[in-house]
Task: inverse folding
């Protein structure tokens, strides 16, 4: 039995503020080195090194993100790209984004985005490893393009009807064509977590590294690891090809592709898209590919908003990115695009920091740090809110009313001040057997009826305020 521990009395609470600074995203700290057995060789990883590297986010909202929903108009793509650039900030936290080039609308969208003049995210294309497709990239004058280079035998044999050698030669041929014309290729190893790493992936990647030695640094081929069906896992001891730590290590140390030229593109089929992308950062892959709200093929991709918060948690800084603009993007998608953002979606959903539990509302009234993940008001423009149901209690109602009236500190109402409103709410459920939540509009009316002087003062001071909005 280990040493018996006794409760340690303290005069001041230990809030672990070095890890949970309320004015910033909580920090992720690491105790030390992780060890993995790769082919009988014990390899050490130090996750703390990820904090020192120039890790960044890439975006595929306009490529993979359009494969799971009705198409955007060219003007919508321009508007969303503009918002992405503003979220990213001047230092390129969101480093690049990719576009289809196949239709006239696709190409017009690229032109509209380029006219905005943003440095980040840089605009790149996406094509198949086909000479005809490559002509589209040249005609658009792009400096970089992704190209589909399927890696698993499922794709090579059954989709492309090729042998490994035929696929290898075709891929390398288009890569060489790109390099010869001054376009940087980014090879997308489709289905890599179900591929023969030694028999196909490494020979192909090593050839890319060899070609990279013959060209300037800005043309050296990149590699995107595509977890097409979400098979990647982070578990210690897991084997290739599904082990993310071992896959990244192998591509870097045996394949010869440096971290800044390596990117992860995942899917969420097994609920692992976000954690798999972040794990790649920790083990030596600098770029995590994402989409806004995780919209993407089938179950979607890692959500860009989640990657931004995780970036801040690892780096200890947002590096110029502005999370408050996520609310603007959410409004644009809901009002202009007609997309439905799940209410519980972290950081962007209407209910993500809205509680219905009375005990939680009681905690928020005491100190919002108790039930709010960080200062969402300052960092996201999203104050913690309360939704009223039969579970909200008097504290929940008091919190809602104070929020609506914009009362803080000593000006806040007490429980007895909202008892009439609380009785009305209770009557809805106990007498009328209501099965829906109380709307913001209904609560506003109850405030007007039972706290008329407070309501009048609020209307005089903020006549245009719309506190019923979940993004208020």
Result:
């Amino acid at each position: 039995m280990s040493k018996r521990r006794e409760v340690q009395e303290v005069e001041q609470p230990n809030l672990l503020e070095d890890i949970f600074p309320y004015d910033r995203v909580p920090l992720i700290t690491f105790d030390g080195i992780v060890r993995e057995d790769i082919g009988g060789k014990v390899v050490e990883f130090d996750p703390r090194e990820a904090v020192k590297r120039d890790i960044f986010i890439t975006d595929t909202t306009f490529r993979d993100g359009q494969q799971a929903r009705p198409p955007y108009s060219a003007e919508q793509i321009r508007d969303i790209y503009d918002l992405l650039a503003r979220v990213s900030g001047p230092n390129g936290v969101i480093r690049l984004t990719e576009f289809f080039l196949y239709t006239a609308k696709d190409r017009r969208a690229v032109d509209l985005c380029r006219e905005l003049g943003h440095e980040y995210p840089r605009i790149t294309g996406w094509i198949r490893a086909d000479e005809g497709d490559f002509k589209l990239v040249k005609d658009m004058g792009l400096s970089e393009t992704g190209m589909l280079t399927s890696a698993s035998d499922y794709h090579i044999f059954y989709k492309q009807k090729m042998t490994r050698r035929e696929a290898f030669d075709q891929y390398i041929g288009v890569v060489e064509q790109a390099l010869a014309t001054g376009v940087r290729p980014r090879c997308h190893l489709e289905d890599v977590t179900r591929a023969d790493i030694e028999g196909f992936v490494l020979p192909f990647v090593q050839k890319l590294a060899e070609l990279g030695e013959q060209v300037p640094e800005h043309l050296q081929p990149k590699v995107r690891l595509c977890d097409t069906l979400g098979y990647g896992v982070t578990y210690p001891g897991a084997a290739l090809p599904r082990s993310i730590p071992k896959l990244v290590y192998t591509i870097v140390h045996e394949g010869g592709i440096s971290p800044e030229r390596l990117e992860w593109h995942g899917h969420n089929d097994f609920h692992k898209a976000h954690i798999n992308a972040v794990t790649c950062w920790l083990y030596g892959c600098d770029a995590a590919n994402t989409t806004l709200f995780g919209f993407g093929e089938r179950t979607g991709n890692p959500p860009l908003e989640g990657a931004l918060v995780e970036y801040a948690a690892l780096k200890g800084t947002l590096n110029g990115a502005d999370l408050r603009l996520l609310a603007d993007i959410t409004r644009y998608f809901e009002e202009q695009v007609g997309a439905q953002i799940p209410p519980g979606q972290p950081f962007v959903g209407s209910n993500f920091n809205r509680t219905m539990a009375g005990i939680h509302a009681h905690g928020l009234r005491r100190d919002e740090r108790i039930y709010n993940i960080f200062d969402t008001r300052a960092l996201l423009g999203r104050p913690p809110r309360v939704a009223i149901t039969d579970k909200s209690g008097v504290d929940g109602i008091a919190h809602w009313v104070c929020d609506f009236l914009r009362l803080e500190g000593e000006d806040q109402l007490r429980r007895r001040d909202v008892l009439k409103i609380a009785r009305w709410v209770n009557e809805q459920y106990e007498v009328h057997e209501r099965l829906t939540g109380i709307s913001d509009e209904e609560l506003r009316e109850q405030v007007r009826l039972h706290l008329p002087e407070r309501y009048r003062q609020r209307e005089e001071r903020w006549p245009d305020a719309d506190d019923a909005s979940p993004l208020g």
